[in-house]
Amino acid sequence: MWRQLRKICILELLSARRVQSFRHIREEEVGRLVAAIAESASSNEAINVSERITALITDSTKRALIGDRFEKTEEFLQMLEQTVKLVSGFNLSDLFPSSRLASFISGTVRLAEETHRKTFELMEYAIKQHEEGRDGAAADGEDLVDVLLRIQKEGGLEVPLTMGVIKAVILDLFNAGSETSATTLQWAMSELLRCPNVMHKAQAEVRHNLQGKSKVTEDDLANLKYLRLIIKETMRLHPAGPLLLPREATEPCKILGYDIPKGTTVLINAWAISRDPKHWEDPEDFKPERFESGIVDFKGTNFEYTPFGSGRRICPGMIFAEANMEIVLATLLYHFDWELPGGAKVEEVDMTEKMGITIGRKNDLYMHALVHVPPI
Predict the structure, then answer these.
(1) pTM score, two decimals?
(2) Per residue in 19-30, pLDDT tens?
(3) What is the CA radius of gyration of the chain?
(4) Which run of H or E residues covers position 337?
(5) Which end of the chain is more exposed for a tag (fewer CB within 10 A), N or C?
């Protein structure tokens, strides 16, 4: 089943062609973002950049997954937010798994079961909507629920796609696709605030390439090489998933003097490796130029840099994540100049981390925006 689902993800759900078909969604959402920020900038309000970015990525991902027809979006997003909190939060029963008292006191198991039930009910409602309306849908206009239902209908799979599997796939894709991209973009803006020279260089590149244009489109992204270096460096310093998916030792081995028996579960600390001075010069510094040579990439072949993992379990959503992050960052840098509220110094940017499914900012990032290119 795992191999089959991965094949479906790579060839159907998250292929370059499929991601390209969602281009209009990304461009519409960044257009709304620009308008909202420009309105706040006109009244000199401090903007909660974390909140704005998270809302944009969430809406873009939701539309790609289940489309625009789903009217219970708010309830669905609340359930997903609750799921993330449950998975990443403290749970007393994890410390005492055999204790019924610990489970009762924490209430986490009951809450998890209730959240799971409500989430799957909402997913079932969304799927029924798609079943009723998919007959006239063109292939290029499919969202990911449409794709999964089409594959289910066509059959020919080694293991049939059940409704339970379809729900689980959609929920996994949503959580993985929204949380990680939003976290990376927040860290990128944080680092750019701390490194004004890097921000000015990136803005100069974007504004030179888009000179005279009223908005950023995905056609404009191909020549923004420095912008992509910034995203790479952000993922090095702040990998959204600090621990890669667990592996299992297929044979006995020795690591740092420790004997690792066959069958041992092994966790790889990508965060520590990407800051290891053995592999990186000045590893704690934000230097996008370190990737200019193009030798090191995140496709999983350079083991000192694996923000998307490596091997057969490398993240199949790399193209989806790249597409989301590039247009959002380019848009923020093209339309606005950014500074800290209240005349704060760059050294005062709060970079405190919060551990969860991803390593995000503990506190939201607030910034002042000055409109450089007004929205149309």
Answers:
(1) 0.89
(2) 999 999 999 999
(3) 22
(4) strand 336-339
(5) C
